[in-house]
Specification:
Elements: E1 3-7, H1 11-23, E2 27-31, H2 34-43, E3 48-52, H3 60-69, E4 76-81, H4 88-94, E5 98-102, H5 106-118, E6 123-126, E7 129-132, E8 137-140, E9 143-144, H6 149-160, E10 166-167, H7 168-172, H8 180-194, E11 198-201, E12 205-208
Parallel strand pairs: 1-2, 1-3, 3-4, 4-5
Antiparallel strand pairs: 6-7, 7-8, 8-9, 10-12, 11-12
Length: 211
Amino acid sequence: MSRILLLQDDAILSQTIQTALQSDGFDVITVTEGNEALKRANNEQFDLYLLDINTPYMGNFDLMAELRAQKDATPAFFITALKDLGALSAAYDTGMDNYIKKPFEASDLVVRVKASINNQFDFLDYGNVKYDALNKKVVSNNKEIPLTHVERHIFDLLIRNLEQNITKEQFFAVMERPSEMALRVHINKLKHKLGFAIKNARGIGYRLEKL
């Protein structure tokens, strides 16, 4: 049974999330403070961290940075409100893997959590490329492929979510100056550097298909 650490100080939302995930077979441990989450993470094994972006006593950016500094590569989802979207680029820098925006359907959260846990690996192979998911490094023939900060985060979204459409909004969250034109430029540069067929999901975003 996969174990999830849920950091959420809204009692009603916490219960809703816990019930939905437990109904699908997950073991959910709930905490309400960042320092409590760090203590549990240091002493127990989890398959996913599900963290609200605003909780008391320890900011989640600090919590995430501390976990990654300890070489904890457990996938992490942030739960965020629309007003927090401007901070998501910084959140990705601390080691966040994905996010879900409030309000959301519990069924949508369950689907995304399952996909993230199923794709949980420290290293991912794709064709002749090996991806170091913790450090976001792409290596081919024992040689690191130089990617910009934004390109690394875009590639991370694509490879962790193979065959799933990644929305433009999800890409925008990891970009410094988000726009559809800038996204196309980043995608084209990735295609050129990696030789991958990144598919355009018309009107939605992009996806990376299995080889």
